[in-house]
Amino acid sequence: MLTSLRNEPHLGDILRRRRETLGWTIEIASKKSGIPEKQITAMETKTLFLFRSNVSLLDANLRIYGRRLGLNMQDHEELIGEMVGEIGPGNRHMTKLP
Known about the structure:
- This protein is mainly alpha-helical.
- Helix content is 55%, strand content 0%.
- The chain has five helices and no strands.
- The chain has helices at 11-22, 26-33, 37-45, 55-68, 77-87.
- The protein is globular.
- It starts with 10 loop residues before the first helix and ends in an 11-residue tail after the last helix.
- 21% of the residues are buried.
- The model is unreliable at 1-5 and 90-98 (pLDDT under 50).
């Protein structure tokens, strides 16, 4: 498993670990959060291409999912910004790529 050069977990790691601590599968997390399983997997693994056409959805889903897991997402604002910035720096409404 590759780790961040900063030796800090990314937000996806934090979300996955919390989900696992709760004993939830991706399927259970999806049902409890209303977020599709593919999107949860993408957020946890930082494979964010699913959100490239809608950066606002990524931002909202990170916050919703974190809250459903019982996390205070205000504590993770910087990490949310980093993940959102990876697919749309400064652009909350990207146009769909061909």
